[in-house]
Design a protein that fits this description.
The chain is α/β, with parallel strands linked by helices. Helix content is about 25%, strand content about 25%.
């Protein structure tokens, strides 16, 4: 199961089932009986699901059984006469004893995943979820189901595990994600990958989506085409006082020969502190992507404070902050690390995993 930055699941397919049961095609190219390690509300378990075209499909009753007694719990009822499945959020689930029936991972004939024959209602309203019928039971795409119920769900690529209900590391956390430059401020320019501000936004927006999916509150400093002055970004940090500030950039050098990933941390942490710890984690995850790692940069102004305004503003309100510079986009080899959407997603995922580990270390 893959996300879009985290690769939890590819393009969204909407399958609204009408009372007359107009049947959407449930044809899949690939299918497996799947045994998926899953973290649900902080408790690790095994989900017995079907992996259809690389997406996890699950039964409502299995999910309801795992979430019973939590704030995300729901009840499920079946109306055989009208062929309606009713899901009621906040309802108490009554187990049948057949939930999450074990099966072994292995090949499954895709033709046995049939079009749905029932309408799904969530709190009385028709729901648009990709679904299919397998062995008499309706299965729904996990990503769609969680989105409909506002339940965080993401894919932890490092542990090969699905996470439903958010990661405890992000509970009650607020992160400000800053896409460097933007609008009329284009940043560095590359003959191979274009304007830096576009790369920054692509990675920052992916990162923001991953953090939200994991249950984190995220504030972004700018939209895709916005011009936001540095002083305004500094004011945002001071007003919000988030738990962390992440500013996403891509590098360039006067000589056009520099390469590698660099993380800028706050000067107050040069000999140890939260921003240096996070910078070290970021370096480790960037290295796992095959990036050469440069020394952590602590740059001071004439007063001995942070040279970079965002790092300085964050330090003013005791907020840990870092600036990431994943690649030198004016270098032909380095620019190849950020020349596709998939590579930008991998960059965002590396930042996400480092942040998760950093927050985990604080609890």
């Amino acid at each position: 199961m893959k996300s879009r930055l985290c690769k939890l699941l590819p393009a969204l397919v909407l399958c609204l089932i009408f009372p007359l049961f107009a049947q959407n095609s449930a044809a899949f190219d690939t299918a497996l009986c799947h045994t998926q390690p899953t973290l649900i509300k902080g408790q690790e378990t095994i989900f017995y699901s079907y992996l259809l075209d690389s997406e996890n499909y699950v039964r409502l009753r299995d999910v309801a059984w795992f979430l019973r007694g939590t704030d995300a719990g729901f009840s499920v009822q079946w109306d055989d006469a009208q062929r309606i499945v009713s899901l009621t959020t906040g309802g108490a689930y009554d187990p049948l004893g057949t939930e999450n029936t074990p099966h072994e991972s292995g090949p499954f004939d895709p033709s046995l995943a049939l079009p749905p024959t029932a309408q799904l209602l969530i709190d009385g309203q028709p729901a648009e979820l990709s679904s299919c019928l397998i062995d008499g039971s309706h299965y729904y795409r996990l990503r769609d189901l969680c989105a409909a119920l506002s339940i965080p769900v993401w894919w932890d690529d490092a542990r090969r595990i699905a996470v439903v209900g958010g990661d405890p590391a992000f509970e009650n956390r607020t992160v400000m994600v800053d896409a460097g430059h933007g609008g009329s401020d284009i940043g560095a320019v590359s003959q191979w990958v274009g304007y830096e501000e576009r790369l920054n936004y692509a990675v920052a927006s992916e990162l923001a989506g991953m953090l939200r999916a994991a249950g984190c509150r995220v504030v972004e400093t700018r939209g895709e085409f916005d011009t936001v002055m540095l002083t305004d970004r500094m004011a945002q940090v001071r007003a919000l006082c988030p738990d962390l500030l992440l500013s996403v950039h891509h590098n360039a050098s006067d000589s056009h020969t520099a390469t590698g990933a660099t993380v800028l941390a706050q000067v107050g942490d040069e000999y140890g502190g939260p921003s240096k710890t996070l910078a070290e984690l970021l370096g480790a995850y960037f290295a796992s992507q095959g990036r050469p790692i440069n020394d952590i940069l602590f740059r001071k102004n004439s007063l001995g404070r942070d040279y970079y305004g965002l790092l300085r503003a964050a330090a003013d309100v005791s907020v840990p902050a870092v600036i990431t510079e994943y690649a030198f986009i004016d270098h032909p080899e380095d620019s190849c690390c950020v020349n596709t959407p998939e590579k930008l997603t991998a960059e965002a995922n590396a930042i996400f995993l480092a942040v998760r580990d950093w927050f985990s270390s604080l609890s």
